[in-house]
């Protein structure tokens, strides 16, 4: 689904290399987790995949279902089925949450050559999905994320994800700042979307999210590279022993 090979990325503004040869393949139907100390380049990887400005790719490739992701415009990446949930979801004053979602869903469908969803169908689907994420009707009418609590923003992102039905979902520290109940709701929302045709990359600083979203594969990132890959046990090992031993081993 997602294949990253030898990806090297530097900042455009500064001569600072951040990603130093990332290799990572996420298969359809699998959940891969990336853990790693602060500053290791996890968010940079998700920003580069999303097409954010300010980065220069100096070497390597990233493809989504074989298509060159790095050549695509931001909207083309979304249309191709990439979805990113960020650590700090943006607020969009003046745009109702429901209107935003409906526009996004229909733009997505259009890009995929599907017909627009009727108002009635859209309402039915969004109500159902919002309910399972404990998002009430009032929150659907408010401007996107404006005045939402941290937990509400994260749940709203999972709602966006559920509505857009992406092929490849990347979640960057979606658990940060969430209390246990909100984290469980987010995890349940993600688990409900697990599907044979969909890949997940879950970036998290702490192991606790992975108690609820059970990963198939765990990668440890340090200093711009994946330094170790293993099964779910690797997350537990890191939780107990920290990253220092792994980093020393790699060095
Ligand atoms: P992580 O998400 O793993 O904590 P980041 O991708 O946020 O790591 O950051 C990786 C490294 O790149 C850090 O050393 C960070 O300070 C640096 N970095 C990222 N973006 C910028 C930027 N715009 N300007 C300067 N340094 C940056
Ligand atoms: Mg960080
Ligand atoms: Mg980060």
TrEMBL record:
InterPro entries reported in the protein's UniProt record: AAA+_ATPase, ABC_transporter-like_ATP-bd, ABC_transporter-like_CS, FeS-cluster_ATPase_SufC, P-loop_NTPase
Keywords of the record: ATP-binding, Nucleotide-binding
ABC transporter domain mapped to chain residues: 2-248
Pfam families according to UniProt: ABC_tran (PF00005)
Molecular function (Gene Ontology), one example: ATP hydrolysis activity
Keyword Nucleotide-binding: yes
Family listed: Belongs to the ABC transporter superfamily. Ycf16 family.
Name used for this protein in its record: FeS assembly ATPase SufC
